[in-house]
Amino acid sequence: MPIRPADLQYMEVALNLSLSNLGHTWPNPCVGCVIARDNQIVGRGATAPGGRPHAETIALAKAGAAAQGATAYVTLEPCSHHGKTPPCVDALIASGIKRVVIAAVDPDPRVVGQGIARLKQAGIEVVVGVGEAEASNIHAGFFKAVRTGMPLVTLKLATTRNGFLDTSTLGRRWITSQTARDHTHFLRAQYDAILVGIGTVLADDPMLNVRLPGYKHRSPVRVIIDSQLRLPPESNIVKTAHDYKTLIVTVSKDSTKIKSLREAGVDILESDSMELAWILVQLYRDAGITRVLVEGGFEVAKSTMGNGLADRIYWYRNHLAAGAKARFNVQDLGLEPQPYFLDYALDSVKRFPCDELSLYKKLPSP
């Protein structure tokens, strides 16, 4: 079916809507939907936090009777199966929508192509592929999880100009500037979970939440890899476990520690292995997490890179150079010398007053 001039415009609105709750609808993708009629938007919606209601349901409710004869713009093929909510395809058909423009086909075996087929069978005109590249990028976590059983993994690195990951020779706590750290909090707000090793918690006693104004309600699940349950009861993580969902991955069977942590509000994921790849599989299989931001420390970053698990790398580099006694260089992670990684392509560069952020994306397998 032909693409109309307004299709790109309205799909852009839907794509922006799909970013609004990104990281907070897992295990469902954050879909955006716009209902347009007579050259104006009559309804819009994004998948609600927790995954329900779906975007189409919200947009149709706002459109009401105006949906009759209108066009729906959806970033992902509408679901056609019965889950915890009725199929969105049924709602679209019942509303009297006459045309549906879809950015990307849903790879979920329960849906793939069936939603499109149902719409066509109902006599609705369907256009597929408008804004597909951007939609695939936004829904990358959901796509990867459905196809591979493992979440999208993003590694965040903060280094000096000469590639060191520690501040021992800088005379300050953080490598990057406040502006870059604020951007990191914006990044956190877009992920289902943030993952660190127990070493980072013991060394820094972090909060691992989002403290950026306007985004504080969007803190991800805090995942701590702690094989022997060394997490101190007085740590910031434990003290705030009732405020921010916290998950400890461990192989420990220490029932006393497990009971104490659970009483403090910490969830425990008992694993058979501390291999990072297996932990990631469990995070999707058992918790429904589709987007993971790996923030540290060095050992977790090394495991992420050494096992080829990072799909994206956000590399923040400060303008300062570390001294000769600094430890932990990016080359120790198995990366090629800057600015190139063996299996990654530079996607974009963002500059702050004192830092530079490079985004690398993993190259497709040959």
Give an account of the 3D structure.
The protein is built from 12 helices and 14 strands. The chain has 366 residues and is of the alpha/beta class. The chain has 2 domains: 139 residues, 3-Layer(aba) Sandwich (Cytidine Deaminase, domain 2); 214 residues, 3-Layer(aba) Sandwich (Dihydrofolate Reductase, subunit A), CATH 3.40.430.10. The strands form 2 sheets. A 9-stranded mixed β-sheet has the order 10-9-8-7-11-6-12-14-13, with helices on both faces. α8 links the parallel β7 and β8. The chain is globular, with a radius of gyration of 22 Å. The mean pLDDT is 92.
* Unreliably modeled segments: none
Q: Structural class, from helix and strand content?
A: alpha/beta
Tell me what portion of residues adopts beta-strand conformation: 15-25%
Q: What is the N-to-C succession of helices and strands?
A: HEEHEHEHEHHEHEHEHEHEHEHEEE
User: Number of helix segments?
Assistant: 12
| End-to-end distance | 33 Å
